[in-house]
């Protein structure tokens, strides 16, 4: 028996809350997998644990087992109406389809299959939970597999289970530990006869109500009330922020707990924690000085701070609920925020990989000298828990693990195909260039034919200028834009832009001329015009200005031209 269970049986209510936190999400998730709505699943989970809590004095060791909880849940689910799944629940259509098929299975095979595949229950344990025989439990699992008839079923179930994990917890602990007291219905109005007989009664009641209202208004405006209200707001904000931090850290698969002392790394959410601490300190200072705060203003500021914790997967979920296909400005705001979060998560995941370098070096490598991800994930259960959570978090947030051939260096790469499709289908069409950059589609830009490089350079130039005012997006896309121009100009002699006579190749002449005539407000056109003037004077052999076009020099020239253009 676990220590927490021993404490529960000894009457420790705090231990009960701790135990509840370990198990209630499993019960809520089981109800969802069974087929009821998210709201119903929360009610089922609350009821199962409230029943345990109310009879805590009589609880036995068996009552605290997961199998007993699942058994109680099944009894509650029996006869409940299945949820309407027409609108879908998940980010990916494949998950919705598999969930619908799972819910549509006959109960005799659906329940054993769910318990076996999602909760790793043996046939004997399934029989104990459902009341069926071991043989029927085995037959149920086999029958479900036959009905589903899905290729790569295990892999699809793994992805579906991750999608189940993404659901926000809907249960409310208040409904478990505090009985809901319903107000008695108001008494019917007295008949007109009685009213006529006793008008003074209602005058008296009206005067009493007015007096109470005046006293209430006086109290709520008092310094004591204002101070107490402000302190309560600060206390609630602290608890709410901690809950949001834990929830989003869980979704990302990382935790910054005990890592803030490391001055050389920055973890996702760390900057937001600092902002929140400053916010709370400022509010506490206001309370100490004046005894009150502007709660409306504070609540708005708190909302903005908490939104920073929202992980990319949550942003995508919200985007699916409210697509921005017809709104370019809001699409730009979405991409700006999304870029920032993806960038900060990249740093966090890089930190995690560095911390687990020995584990990675001990992994298998394929015949091409690359990281064998498949064998790596098969051995995942042997890795430290925090590392396992981070790997799952990477997948949830759109990352995968990549490696440099014949090198033990492994890094996180953003851009899963399914996610790319979702972004393109739910954002304004002008966001395509930003999505391409974000998902790494432009990494090998310099390997493309020069004509295609120019096409993409000019598209990126428009995208960079359009992104001004959206700092995260502008900074990232401008770096890509600078790199493209650096590549097109030959990377200061690193690329072969001259023929055997030392003259600039014809395809580069045409490319540079095209850029130069892109318009007077084109930053890249401004640079190429200076190059072409010097090249034409030398018969297309030399240009001192071209020789100076190092990456950071180009960056400075572009920014200077943009500043001048604004004037």
Give the key terms.
567 residues; mainly alpha; two-stranded antiparallel sheet; 28 helices; 2 strands; globular
Walk me through what this model shows:
The chain is mostly helical and 567 residues long. Helices cover 66% and strands 2% of the residues. It has helices spanning 3-9, 13-34, 38-54, 66-77, 93-104, 107-119, 123-130, 134-148, 153-166, 174-177, 192-197, 199-220, 223-252, 270-290, 295-309, 312-321, 328-355, 357-361, 373-378, 385-396, 417-426, 432-438, 450-466, 471-488, 506-516, 523-537, 544-547, 551-566, and strands at 399-403, 410-414. Strands 1-2 form a two-stranded antiparallel ribbon. Helix 5 (93-104) crosses helix 9, helix 6 crosses helix 8 (134-148) and helix 7 (123-130) crosses helix 8 (134-148). The longest helix has 30 residues, at 223-252. It is globular, with a radius of gyration of 32 Å.
